Prior knowledge:
Elements: E1 4-9, H1 18-35, H2 45-70, E2 77-82, H3 83-111, H4 115-121, H5 135-157, H6 164-175, H7 179-196, H8 201-226, H9 228-235, H10 247-269, H11 279-282, H12 288-295, H13 318-324, H14 326-344, H15 349-363, H16 374-377, H17 379-406
Antiparallel strand pairs: 1-2
Amino acid sequence: xxxxxxxKVTGRNLIFGPLAIFFIVWNIVLFLYSLHFSKLLYYSTxxxxxxxxxxxxxxxxxxxxxxxxxxxxxxxxxxxxxxxxISQLIRRVKIFFWFWSMMTVFEVVYCQGVPVLWLIxxxxxxxxxxxxxxxxxxxxxxxxxxxxxxxxxxxMTGNKRxxxxxxxxxxxxxxxxxxxxxxxxxxxxxxxxFYFTKINYYKFAKSILLLLILILIFGVVxxxxxxxxxxxxLAAVNDNYPDWLPSGFLWVYMYLVTPLNNLxxxxxxxxxxxxxxxxxxxILLIPSFLRNLIYGDLTYDSTxxxxxxxxxxxxxxxxxxxxLGYIGVFLxxxxxxxxxxxxxxxxxxRSVLCFCVLMQCNMLxxxxxxxMYLPIIFQLVVIYFCFIARYDSRIVKYAETKRxxxx
Length: 407
């Protein structure tokens, strides 16, 4: 086996740790909510504060326990890979990308086009009509995981050809008009980037610029799907809203604050079902063709508790609350902090990539429950079995043995 390549990650800024990111993201949402730019936000800032800090405190407890158990040192983190492992990853990326491509071509033929084309010709079909049930979710997991692994290869080798798949994945998200696919892909790559790159003001400024561009794209895609005027009416904008802001800001604002608004609404109006089987929380973890076999006639109803049907997401914690009340909220936030901190303490490639996936789930928990959404969380399975599994353990064992022999 070739000599090991040692990548040492030292002195990463604590502001980019799991707890800090979770704390910052949720407090940004809390701050935005307190501005009350929409008439739909009729709950008080105090009520929003209670909901937000219930989640943050639960996450903190899980983070703290795992931090104590692992005794993780942020300033002594060595990432070990080998040339043969890199070569193996490159081959697997090619195999799985071509598999994704062939299956996606089949989907396009089966659906007779793609959403962006349907939008241009105005045939009435939308992005909801694209894809084959269950297969489409798996393909989304595969392209996201392949994009993440490809960006990892770029960071390890510096070869820009490995950026082609990540860039194509972003382009494909625009073709199918999937903001979720675009945002998940970008966030996971950003987390991976900062995992291996020491933060400086220049790179941080570039990241902020990228975020602003993403917000503008988010608004353009949103306007294409709904229409700017229609969206302003749906958002029930208050008189204190700054009209000079681009429409992308209002799209992002409403999609960030209305999930929290819906969560507070449920806290105040809905009684928990005390469902030990966690049917509401886990139903979207099951492929659609198996749901009726497992859950019977149960359907996933995500509309009856909404403040308005126009904004139909309610953070990651709505379904745990429906199942087990505040206990469900605590458990999901607790285990989110617990497991992401466990992965942060590991040094192997598999753990690093899975860490990025869970960090993305943590960041987007203000919007949706990606922990329990199969097309997103199935990336962990894809990373483990398709890309890493057998080779990762051999390489880590080899590298550890070599270092011991050198001592």
